[in-house]
Amino acid sequence: QVPLYIASTSFDAFALAGEIADGVIVGDIADPEVIRNIVRTVRESAVKAGRDPKAIKIVAWVSTLLTDSQEETYELLRLPVVGRAVSNAARKTREA
Questions:
Q1: What is the Cα–Cα distance from 88 to 71, expressed in whole angstroms?
Q2: What distance in Å separates the CA atoms of residue 14 and residue 76, rounded to the nearest whole number?
Q3: Which of 45, 53, 79, 95 could pair with 15 as two cysteines, CB 3.0-4.6 Å apart?
Q4: Burial 71-87 (b: 16+ CB within 10 A, else e)
C-alpha cells in the first residue's frame, strides 16, 4: 500500500487531507501561528471523518538558503519570490 500525501498551500486541501489522506505536505509556510491553524484544520477534518487525527503525518516543506552575504541571499531569492508573487500560488495561505 502506497501512502497518499496531499501537498498544498490551500486550507481546503489541508481539510481534505484530514478526511482522506495519510499525510499532508505544507508548502513553504514557516509562520508558527499559520502552522498551528493548518494542524488544527487537518485534525478537525480527520475527527469529522471518523479518523484518528494523530495518524495523519504533517510535513512542513520550507525552502532554506545559507549564504555568506545579504546581497547573495537577495539574488538567490529574487526569482522564486517574484515568481510566486506573480503567479499568486500561495495567496490563501499568505492571507492566513
A1: 25
A2: 29
A3: 45
A4: eeeeeeeeeeeeeeeee
